[in-house]
Specification:
Layout: E1 10-13, E2 17-18, E3 22-23, H1 28-37, E4 43-45, E5 48-60, E6 70-90, E7 94-104, E8 107-113, E9 118-123
Antiparallel strand pairs: 1-9, 2-3, 4-5, 5-6, 6-7, 6-8, 8-9
């Protein structure tokens, strides 16, 4: 992350239910964790292809005795895209029409606590995927 920009963390509640009674933790092994860890899953949009990278699962002991550990899914969300331009400005020649493009892959860091549905989200670059 560039030193000139301090990261800003966002917090959100990711309330996701499976039917009337099941929540993220209930189907963690069968549905939720594979959705984050399967490297073949990608979402193509007009702005690029989104996918998860370096996803890990961590168990964090709960501070209250007797409660199960917190199950945290964390990693990076990548937007694999192409930056394009049609023209630029030069002091010597004015507007210069010169279409060019280059690959770009801005990222955001996320941590999702499955027990409480809390999402911690940190865009790492200027054009990183938003919350």
């Amino acid at each position: 992350m560039p030193a000139s920009r301090a990261p800003k963390i966002a917090f959100a509640n990711l309330i996701y239910r499976f039917g009337d009674e099941l929540v993220l933790l209930d189907l963690a092994d069968e549905v939720v964790i594979p959705a984050f860890t399967n490297t073949e899953l990608r979402r193509a949009t007009r702005g690029g292809t989104y996918f998860f990278l370096n996803v890990q699962i961590s168990e964090v002991p709960d501070v209250e005795e007797g409660l199960p550990p917190l199950l945290v899914v964390h990693g990076k969300l990548v937007n694999d895209t192409l930056m394009t331009r049609d023209q630029f400005y030069s002091n010597e020649t004015g507007l210069v029409v010169m279409p060019q493009s280059m690959p770009s892959a801005p990222t955001s860091f996320f941590a999702l606590i499955l027990n409480s549905h809390k999402l911690l989200y940190v865009p790492e670059l200027e054009d990183a995927p938003s919350l």
